[in-house]
Amino acid sequence: MPARDDDGRGCLYKLVVQNFKSYAGYLEIGPFKDFTCVIGPNGSGKSNLMDAISFVVGVTATTLRGSRIADFRSNLSTASASPTSVSLFYRGPEKGSGKFDEIQFTRTITSRDTSEYKIDNKKVDEKEYQRRLKSIGLLVKSRNFLVFQNEVEAVAQKTPKQLTELLERISGSEDLKQQYEELMEQKSAASQTAVAVYKRSLLVSNEKKQCKEQVKEANTYEKMLNDLNDLKTHHVLFDLYQIEKQIESHATEAETLGEKLEECSKNCKAVSNAADKKSKKKAEKQKEWSVIDKKVDDLEKKVKSIQRQDLLKLSTEISSRKADITKNSEEMKNSKEKLQEMTQKLKSEEKERDDLEAALKEIESKSKKRGIDLVGEQVSEYNQLKSKAFQMSHKAKTALERTERADQEAKRQLETLEVSMKRCQQRIDHLSSKIKDESAVNSKNLNKLQGLNEEKHKCSSELTDVTAKLKDEYARKKVLVNENRELQEKIREASFDHHQNQRDEQFKIRLEHLSSSFPGIRGRVMDLCKVRQRQHELAMAITMEGNMDAVVIDKEETARRCIEHLKEQKAPAMTFLPLDTLTAKPPDERLRMIQGAKLALDCIEYEKSVEKAMWYVTGNTVLVPTLQDAKNLAYQSQSVGSLRCKVVSHDGALISKSGTMTGGDNSHLQSKAQRWQANELDKLREKLEKCSREQESVSKTIEVLERAKFGLEKKLSENSAELTAAQRLKEIHDIDQKNLEKEVNIHKKQLETLAPNIQHMKREIDSQRKTLEEDRAALDKIHDMVYRDFCKKMGIKSIAEFEGGSLKEQREVQSRINDLTQQKAKVEGVIAKSKSNYSAYVKLLEDKKQETKKLEEEIASLKSKEESSKKKMKEAMDAKEEELRKQKAIKEEIDEIEKEYKEITKVLKKANEDREEISRQLEKAEAQMQRLRDKRNGVFEQCKMDEIEIPTRKKKDGSTDDDEEDNMDIEAGHSQTAKEIRQEVLQSRIDFSKLPREHKRDLGEKDQEKIRSDLEEKQKKINETLQTMNPNMKAHEQLKEIEERYEAVQQELSSAKQNSQDLTKQFEDVKQKRCELFNKCFDHVKGCIDEIYKELTCDPTKVEQSVGGSAYLTLNNQEEPYMDGIKYDTIPPGKRFMDMTHLSGGEKTVAALALLFAINSYCPAPFIVLDEVDAALDARNVAKVTRYIQSRRHEQQCVIISLKERFYEKADGLVGICRDITGGHSNVFTLDLSMYEDGIQ
User: What positions does the domain Ig-like occupy (predicted)?
Assistant: First the structure.
């Protein structure tokens, strides 16, 4: 009969497996009872049944005993062609008349190694499959009905967080987890958004007030800016007028010098032609000399070749042959001596052979004279008698051997008993002494307890003081470590390239030398300024790129002298910025008003005296944080629309005034940028060294305090341990003394038993000795009877005398003859080998004689070749001397031509010097014009940058000066004639009519400087006023924009507040629902777990276990319990409280089962399967668990896989599993025990 359903619950009716693991073919398992036990030997397939149930309910392959789903196929040959599937037949509550609602769940492994799910043979998807299982109480995700092998203790040892996750799955609150977390994030984001919008509304309101004030200031600013532009135009016209006059003067001078240079060049050309003719003649003679020199070299090589390849080779071969002859002579001498030695040795060996033959003959003659030896029939008769004696005495000899073994065994047992008796007596003496010592220990322990308490109090006080000091030192160390890290970071940032540093040092040395020789040198640009913020260093390096190493100097004349000096010294070039002639204007004030940008000049610190140079190197350049900001400013911003400026980003990107963009690898500029920090490097290193010393000192102090703390903690720990041990020792002293007395009594009883055994063993040994003597006498009697006639015939008293005398001598003689025969054979072998060696040495001697004769003939042939080679070498040396004489004559002609060439060269040098002097004067005049022209172009560029409009006159063709500006830009280094420069000046169409008449007169330097100073002073006053104003020129447009933004922000703020309130309400609803689900499950489990644990641990037969143990659950977080852990503790009966990890294996198993049963009672599955959960349980605990399961079997069906008899004694049904011996697959047998309930009870 299947499991009963009287209580209205469902059950597992049966299981059908097909080719699943060890189950080959089609197999039905069941029907299963209320309490079914699965039994079988190890390896029979019990756990495979557990895997089959887990597989059919949808547990993944990785959770089971397999890495992939294909591992569940049966590997038996009979199952290879059939599919693999498992079907579970579930029966619902009985409807009456024995009818049930039966559901069939089937899971099949397809040919593609995937799962296919069916319900009542209808294919469904996995989601529907799991839903139907959940509807009958099977929660696959939490596995509330499956307890696998070796997982029971793991349940009890789950961490608090893992227990919380388990209850979440059981209670269903886990389904709300994702929604809970999403709403929490949305709520937090909405709150942050509302706060951010509110802050923006405040900012926009403040901007609105400020913008209204800026509108008023902008109107005043525009008026003063127009006045400033008029002054700048006046200043530019004055500078251009004076430059044009100076260019015209230098052009006239350059025309005169050009005519002189042309005449001097013609003279140099004529002298140069004469020098070329002499040079060609000299080259021809040198060519003849080279040909002869080549012939001399060839002859020299030929002589050396004859010496090296012929003479040296022949000489070496002759020496080699002579050495071979000498060597052969020595070997022949040694061979003769060896032959003499071998002859003597051969004679000695032949004599030894003769001696051995004589000794052998003598022994044979002596052995013939002996009359006692056995020969022929006597030996045969002796052997027959010996065989007969062995047969007749076999029984007696066997008895003798048996008696000897019994005697040895008795002696061994006697020795063992005596040793045991001795050890027992020693143990009694030792225990008696130990009992006496125990009484003295108790009194000493009392004194020790008092001392330990005093020492513990002292250590605690010292430890508190050390801990306080250590805390202070750690705080100090943390401060020093942070300071050290900051200093290291600063040093790393301040460091720059080593090679760049070397070049920088060399540059400084040259500059110091110039400063000492020429007064008025201020220094390099990069040394005269300092970047205010480190983030601007790279951008400033790009701004100044070509002028960082430029030298600022007071006067232009000093710069010229420095350049001449550098040329004379052949030193690298330097760039000079003379303050007296340098054309530079202050940057446009409007650039300071650009939001998000900073004027390059404002990013550096410098002295007022070099301000003009700083204007020149920075110009109208602004710095912005990023490349995108640079693009917005250069291409899109309306504030820069009317200004022409260079924009540089902090990361090194550059946008020029014309709009071209430059970027890429700026590593070479990065090292230059870091040079501003080089002066601070030494100070930083000193600070770092000081900080490191302090840190080291603090570390040592901490180390000392740590050791002291560790020592005190160790001492305190040891003190506590000793104190506990002393108290424990006092408690167990009496128990130990009683145990010792019991052990003494046991050993005394053992002594009383051992004494009689020893006496008995001694008597048995005496008896064995008598038997041994009798057996030996009987054996001798048999031997005398067999050999009696043979002894009379041989004339000996007994066979023992014969076997010990005559026969022994005969064997020794035979052994001696054999030894001599072997020695003789060895000597004869040695003689044969010596004769063979002698013949070999005779043949070797004859071969050496023939070889020596052949070598003498070869020496004679080589000497003839040597004389021929010497004759060839003499002929080559005579030819070489003749060529050397010709070479000497040509060399004298070359020297005469060289002398004439030097005279012509001197004349040419003087002419070139005159031409170079005129050329230098011309270059100087052109350089002056170029400088003035560059100065003029600089004024034009500055005007473009500052957006100053220069007034121009209309030309005949109608074009203006705007079309000529490009024609006036001539690159540096491009030379022009005086006539071309004059034409350029005449073509200039600048309108100077607005310039006052007094400014057009011929003015000296002082008058010009005075006029410039007046104009600059007026501009300065206006600039100072403008700098204090700093208006916003877009205030009107911005005010309108801000008002629109203010309205939009207000609407956004209202929407954000409403969104935050809605999300908060949704979150609180989900939170409340999740808490209710979780608390409902927790309260149920908490309420029933103690009762279940008591029932599993109670034992009515024992007083201390009659009530059972205690189990309880504790929440770490009462408000949101699912956020923290759950603490599970048990107290086994008769024991004190201890952590779960300290319980025994059986106690952990019982605690785990109690938890599993309690959880299962909240959401009970129709059945539960336990796989060998009793592995760590003893028989008593197995009985308790069995009793509990049996009492609940009508509430929930239970299937247990076990090897314990207690389980299947109390079960309603048995499922037996065993291995088929022939096929290797698992067989299943089902037995219904319900009919035997009365008998079992």
Answer: 572-662
3-state DSSP of 84-126: EEEEEEEEEEEEECCEEEEEEEEEEECCCCCEEEEECCEEECH
Distance CA 1145, CA 154 (A): 11
| Range name among 635-644, 896-905, 918-927, 1098-1107 with the lowest pLDDT average | 635-644
> Tokens 């034992």 — which residue?
1099
The structural domains of the chain, ordered by start, are 1-145+1174-1181+1192-1240 (3.40.50.300), 384-494+698-794 (1.10.287)
Rounded to 5°, angle at Cα 57 from 56 and 59: 95
Q: Among the listed ranges 104-113, 123-132, 136-145, which one has the minimum average pLDDT value?
A: 136-145
3-state secondary structure of 1178: coil
Residue 370 has pLDDT above 50, yes or no: no
Ramachandran angles phi, psi of 475, nearest 5°: -65, -40
pLDDT for 792 beyond 80: no
Cβ proximity of 714 and 451 under 8 Å = no
* Separation CA 925–CA 912 (nearest Å): 20
Task: Provide the token pair at 1197.
Answer: 């069906």
Let me know: does 1033 contact 272? Beta carbons within 8 Å. no
Backbone Cα Rg of the chain: 61
The DSSP secondary structure of 836-905, one letter per residue, reads HHHHHHHHHHHHHHHHHHHHHHHHHHHHHHHHHHHHHHHHHHHHHHHHHHHHHHHHHHHHHHHHHHHHHH
The set of residues, in sequence order, having a beta carbon less than 8 Å from that of 524 and lying 6+ positions away, is: 507, 511, 548, 549, 550, 551, 552
For helices 177-305 and 1005-1029, what crossing angle results, to 10°?
A: 150
Residue 106: predicted pLDDT:
92
- pLDDT attached to residue 671: 56
Q: What percent of the chain has a predicted confidence (pLDDT) above 70? A: 82
First to last CA, the chain: 20
- Two tokens, residue 1202: 């076990």
In terms of C-beta density within 10 A (0-12 exposed, 13-18 middle, 19 or more buried), how is residue 426 classed? exposed
Cα separation, 1077 vs 176, in Å, equals: 10
pLDDT at 1104 (0 to 100): 55
- Encoded tokens for 704: 């000392």
Instruction: Compute the CA torsion angle 220, 222, 224, 229 (nearest 10 deg).
Output: 180
Average pLDDT over residues 1143-1164: 80
Residues 972-1028 have pLDDT tens digits of 333 444 444 544 543 456 777 777 777 777 777 777 788 888 878 887 888 888 777
Residue 800: the pLDDT is: 59
Crossing angle between the packed helical segments 556-568 and 498-517, to the nearest 10 degrees: 120
According to the model, what pLDDT value does residue 637 have?
A: 60
Find where tokens 């609602």 sit: 101
Looking at residue 303, its pLDDT comes to 67
What does the pLDDT look like over 60-86, one tens digit per residue? 776 677 667 777 787 764 545 578 889
Report the distance separating Cα 409 and Cα 405, nearest Å.
Answer: 6
Would you state the torsion angle of the CA atoms of residues 292, 295, 297, 303, taken in this order, to the nearest 10 degrees?
-140
DSSP 513-547: HHHHHSTTEEEEHHHHEEESSGGGHHHHHHHHGGG
Strand duo 1213-1219 + 35-39: pairing: parallel
pTM, rounded to two decimals: 0.38
How do beta strands 604-606 and 529-531 pair? Answer: antiparallel
Distance CA 995, CA 1008 (A): 14
Count CB neighbours of 17 within 10 A: 29
Sole residue written with tokens 């040098």: 909
Task: Kindly give the residue spans of alpha helices, DSSP state H, lying in 952-1004.
Answer: 965-968, 978-987
